[in-house]
Fold each of these.
Amino acid sequence: MGWTQIISAHVSITGAQVTTSNTRLRAATISQKNGSAGQLTVRDGSATGPIRWRVDVPAGGTSLLHLLLPDAGIRLERGIYVSVATSITSTLYYDGGP
């Protein structure tokens, strides 16, 4: 029976390289800090890589979203690069390997 180690990374800055290896994004917790609208964008590998996932967080109050991605998650062959608006922080959960 195989297993997967899940690793988490907290992101609170615009433009962060989370990992550079082949992985799958499994879940995310997204927090809105100041009531402003914001966006979390996940790209494959770099700031110019293809967008694989985008979440819009609407304005209004403080919110906390827990998102579990279906099936095997989102495959990112060149690693995870994430950008967030200044009003957003996020914790990403991804495969760390066998």
Amino acid sequence: MNRIERGDWSRFVAVLTREKPQWTVGKVAAAAEALRRCARAQDRDNVARCNDERWTEEASDRVDARTRQVLAELGFEGVLQRDPRGAALRLVLPSGMTNDCGQTGYCVPTA
């Protein structure tokens, strides 16, 4: 993880901490890591879908279902994007805070 990616990750963890003040530090860290894993899986699925390499609808459905399950367990809504050039997963935060150009949510870092 380079310096810029570390900054993105630190800001993301800080946002989760502000959004869920009742969570312990351990829960915030675990939630951030679970969301990062989901965002990475979504990103890999988007690239495979775009390149049509080893991509199947069933595998994509499993990735989506797992991501939605994690979001529900953590009490967040999410926006999934199918374009591999952008953030694959955005959180819709209770505060309304966004960091993407379309102001649809807060991008989950993948690095």
Amino acid sequence: MDGGFEIFYEFKLVIDEMSKKNPAAMAKGIKMIQGTFSDISKHFEGCANVKADFERLKKVSMMMSSSYAFSYEVGKHLILNGIDVFYHVTAAQESWKNKEYFPFGEAVG
């Protein structure tokens, strides 16, 4: 996949933003993730072996870009379109901090 370094850097920026743990930073981080998923999809288009993953990323990206409801309570809830994704976000942050990138990808995707 071309662009791996750029994608890695984009996710680092997302983690840095969401680590601020305030509503504005979380909202910005969600928008940043949507943009990162869009960037990933550009790089995946020629990879037949990850077509299913590519389709899943597109669905998540669409859900995030059309979010109509967002709620964040520090340390308790992060609700996006009626689904509490707090556990996934905190798991992704912890995995990133520990340089465990496969679990990070699972938590994000």
Amino acid sequence: MLQRLEASEQRSETLAQQLAEATRPLLRQLQTLQTSGSQQQAAWERQERQLADALAEAQAHLAQLTDAERAAREELLCLRSKVSTLESKLKAAQANAQSSQERVVELQAELDR
């Protein structure tokens, strides 16, 4: 009975050693997977930060371009108004010059009589 107990304890120790040896590769694999997962997560977080920064920069640039476009449109409207005013003044000046020219011709004709 004592021999069976010792044999049983010996088998138990042998199984415990075999179990430890069998689980070592699995533990190493788990560690490798955890390390790889952590590295991948860190890479994704870096990529996410870079994309977020790029997005923020693009949005700021868009805001600047939108402001510049609005200012350009306002300037265009102002310039169109000035052109319209100047065209009206030019037409009035041309009409005035035409009537003055006609008056000069009339006065010349009267002098020649």
